[in-house]
Amino acid sequence: MRDHDHVHDELFDGPDRGPGGKGGHGGRRRRHGGFGGKGDGVGPMGPGSMHGHGRGGRRGPGGGRPRGDVRAAILVLLAEQPRHGYDLIREIQERSGGAWTPSPGSIYPTLQSLEDEGLVSIDTVDGRRSASLTDGGRDWVAGHAAEHEGIFEASAAAESLGALRAELGALKEAAVHVARVPGGDLAPQAIEILAEARKRLYRLLAEQD
């Protein structure tokens, strides 16, 4: 029998976990323009490069925790070859089977932060800004190889849990709207629908045990 309480904790109460730590450091000035600056939200490596945080991609309803460890994923991919921002987004999407697509607003600030830390070097190649690992970045990847093995598969699983949380929130909202109908005329039907959904979920669990 699986630990269903653990699944519940992961869905509703789990802390923001993931290898690689946080993606940004404050208090340091960005060099040679970097990926951000003042303006309309379009940075040197693409739209959205001026917004967001170092960790995570898209966020769920209510500003939930970020999906996936963008920092670690970037370093793992750059260990293979230099890449530009769009290439990183595409590779993460493909390697996670389409389950995780980080936004430009998470990729570009993380690249800038990694450059500030001395792990990544940003250069212009054929008119495009491309990122590659420094010696320090290669040492970091080598020292965390076991920790980040299967990072894209793990991120795909985290994405699925995030989608499930979103559906649970939407279901609760729909039930609240039904409950507010004057006279409670829809309540009996809603109860039947929810009860059937609960039974089907338990059948799904039973098939896995």
Key phrases:
two-stranded antiparallel sheet; two-stranded antiparallel ribbon; 209 residues; single chain; Tscrpt_reg_PadR_N; PadR family transcriptional regulator; mainly alpha; WH-like_DNA-bd_sf; Arc Repressor Mutant, subunit A
Description of the molecule:
This is PadR family transcriptional regulator. It comes from Demequina capsici. InterPro entries: Tscrpt_reg_PadR_N, WH-like_DNA-bd_sf, WH_DNA-bd_sf. Pfam families: PadR. The N and C termini lie close together (5 Å). Helix content is 49%, strand content 8%. The strands form 2 sheets. It has a two-stranded antiparallel ribbon. A two-stranded antiparallel ribbon has the order 3-4. The protein has a domain of 140 residues: Winged helix-like DNA-binding domain superfamily/Winged helix DNA-binding domain (Arc Repressor Mutant, subunit A, Orthogonal Bundle). It has 209 residues and is mainly alpha-helical. Helix 3 crosses helix 4. The chain is built from 7 helices and 4 strands, in the order αββαααββααα.
Chart the SSEs and their pairings.
Blueprint: H1 4-12, E1 42-43, E2 46-47, H2 70-78, H3 85-95, H4 104-116, E3 120-125, E4 128-133, H5 135-143, H6 151-179, H7 187-208
Antiparallel strand pairs: 1-2, 3-4
Helix pairs in contact: 3-4
Biased composition (Gly residues): 34-51
InterPro entries: Tscrpt_reg_PadR_N, WH-like_DNA-bd_sf, WH_DNA-bd_sf
Protein name: PadR family transcriptional regulator
